[in-house]
Design goal:
By secondary structure, the protein is of the alpha/beta class. A 4-stranded parallel beta sheet has the order 2-1-3-4, sandwiched between helices. Helix content is 43%, strand content 10%. It contains 13 helices and 8 strands. Helix 1 crosses helix 12 and helix 2 packs across helix 3.
């Protein structure tokens, strides 16, 4: 595997989840990982394209993977589990000759299937290693209790995602522990938050996200750590909607694991995007240890 990785930020990475993108880039740079932006990348079709046409959805993903091939790289990295699902599903389905032929007819240049797509989480845990993460910690997060929440698609279906345990993943748990915080065993770590129903079925999102927030609070977690832009939005931005639906007032910070890593590494504020979060994690982070030499 090359020491450089094609970087696919996804549409939300340059918009609603900008803080995920900037913290990802900063953390990967600190770890010595070279992320190379895919030139002229486009939407991968996540998450609604497959509801319209499976061939079109795969073509949207394959176009970006073909661009990676032209870069001479064999691995694409994305911080977004939804994009990851679409890119990996396309790669899986393109192994079928008849399906690949129909998809390639929609492309300017055919995709040959030589690219592997992984998440930023997988890149850090499997390529760099948790020990290297711990070695960079300058602000140990001692004294705070965090619940890792993976969402329902980061590791499933296992035959396509092929990373960590589909029912009890531990990659984020290990990172949180390496940063010095206490990991709260979270039994709902792969339950759905309501996903993309935030516009069409707010009642579903309020019920499912409320269940997650309630469980985390009852277990003594002081914040939830996520890897998914959609999960982060539902659990952070929609806490007022959850309150209106359930009558419970939540003030639970919900951070990306890369923001947490960047803070523990002592990276500058402008590399973290903490101010973009609705519920500020700063009072909680202030409880942790100060910068150490």
């Amino acid at each position: 595997m090359s020491d450089s990785f094609a970087y696919y930020p996804g549409c939300s990475g340059l918009g609603t989840s900008r803080e995920s993108d900037i913290s990802t880039r900063a953390v990967c740079a600190a770890l010595g990982l070279k992320l190379v932006d895919i030139p002229d990348w486009s939407c991968c079709g996540s998450s609604p394209a497959h509801m319209v046409d499976h061939y079109f959805s795969a073509a949207l993903a394959a176009r970006n993977l073909e661009l990676v091939e032209t870069m001479g790289l064999d691995t694409a990295v994305t911080p977004c589990p939804s994009c990851l699902t679409n890119l990996r599903t396309a790669t899986h389905r393109l192994k079928e000759p008849a399906f690949r032929e129909k998809v390639n007819r929609l492309l300017d240049r055919p995709h040959h299937g030589s690219v592997t797509t992984i998440s930023v989480l997988q890149l850090i845990v499997e390529i760099i290693g948790v020990e290297a993460v711990a070695a960079l910690v300058r602000r140990p997060l001692k004294g705070i209790r965090l619940a890792p929440y993976y969402g329902c698609i980061m590791n499933r279906p296992p035959e396509i995602m092929a990373f960590d345990d589909p029912e009890n993943p531990t990659a984020m748990d290990k990172i949180i522990a390496a940063l010095g915080a206490e990991v709260v065993p979270f039994p709902l770590k792969v339950e759905c938050c309501g996903a993309s129903y935030g516009v069409t079925r707010k009642d579903i999102v309020a019920r499912l996200s409320g269940k997650l927030l309630s469980c985390a609070g009852q277990l003594g977690a002081e914040a939830i750590v996520v890897a998914c832009p959609m999960c982060q939005m539902n659990l952070d931005l929609r806490q007022e909607q959850v309150r209106q639906a359930t009558g419970v007032n939540y003030r639970m910070p919900v951070l990306y694991f890369t923001q947490l890593m960047g803070y523990a590494f002592g990276l500058p504020d402008e590399d973290l995007g903490l101010e973009k979060l609705v519920v500020s994690p700063r009072p909680l982070l202030a409880k942790a240890s100060q910068v150490v030499s």
